[in-house]
Amino acid sequence: MKIRKTSLLFFLGPALFVVALFYIIPLFLSVYISFTPMVDWNVNRYLTQFIGLQNYERLFHIVMYDPDMRAVVITTVVFVLVTLVINVFGGLLLALATYFMDEKMSAAYQGLWLLPRMTPIAVYSLLWYYFFHSSGIGILNSILLKLHLIDHPIALGLDPKYLPWGAWFIIIFVNGLVGVSYGMIIFYSAFKSIPKELIIAARVDGASTTRIIRHILLPLTKWHFTFVMVWQMFSLLMTYAQTFLLVEWRVVDSTWGQTWALYVFRTAFTTTKDQGLAAAASTFLSIIGIVLGIIALKALGYEKMILEPKGDI
Q: Taking Cα atoms as reference points, which of 240, 211, 266 lies closest to residue 76?
């Protein structure tokens, strides 16, 4: 038993250290700052001042009575739900498509889908800046003008006529292209780990590709589906990098194109620089993430999957 504990500490120790250093400690600091009136990063003045739940009361008041903040909440819900479906099921479909391809063609196809993830965030966002630009230099506007589908350039992410759907479409599209490749790689690796003999035996018995997918590939990748679903949900709740650049570059509206995570970042660093309020908002977001994670794991049957198998293997 002692040897087992030592082995667990040896293998899990580095991972636990990284989690504590980059998540647990920052989380505690964020919670601490949420009870202070800190602004403008004036640590010396505000770090030891405690104001109780005032920042949370301000946050609740803003959510209830500020229409811009209500738009942020709605945008967050729409963004996370729609992009999560795209990332998980889009990645699953891509993995299935590449699994039944020739190895070389599969590798080339996956490489193309991985390009958005391998491209630096600034470069990737800049590409979509020029694509969705509201003037005639925008690639989308150029195409639509040449096809005579529009008679003047449109600002899909800014024009009130297209809001909120235009801004939602852009941020979901841009983030979805990055996220879908992650699911593709995880699911493809899971499919490749399934013994080929099962697929060959099914083919010999006359099973179609659809039946192989339904009765072999999908049932044997429940773990991977659960992991991708929960991981991508957490990632989408916390992501803001590409969206921040699109907002700053005036590609999407700063209200309907802003998620909760981006609101936290902008409140702390670029707009009001109110770190106390931003910390309260980030703490609330962390709580929501934990609750949704637990619900998702229970809904996907995580407890049953971690039970020890009955009998000897």
A: 240
What kind of architecture, by CATH, is found in domain 66-271?
A: Orthogonal Bundle (1.10)
Rounded Cα–Cα distance for residues 127 and 125 (Å) = 5
Average pLDDT over residues 187-201: 90
Read off the tokens for 61. Answer: 């008041």
Contact 245, 178 (CB under 8 A): no
Residue range 257-311, pLDDT digits in tens = 999 999 999 999 998 899 999 999 999 999 999 999 899 888 888 777 766 656 5
Rounded Cα distance between 282 and 264, Å, is 6
SS3 state of residue 313? coil
Residue ranges of domains in the chain? 66-271
- Closest C-alpha to 84, from 223, 234, 285: 234
What is the number of other CB atoms lying within 10 angstroms of the CB of residue 136?
10
What is the chain's mean pLDDT, rounded?
A: 89
What is the structure's pLDDT at 311?
A: 52
Tokens representing residue 113 in the block: 């889908």
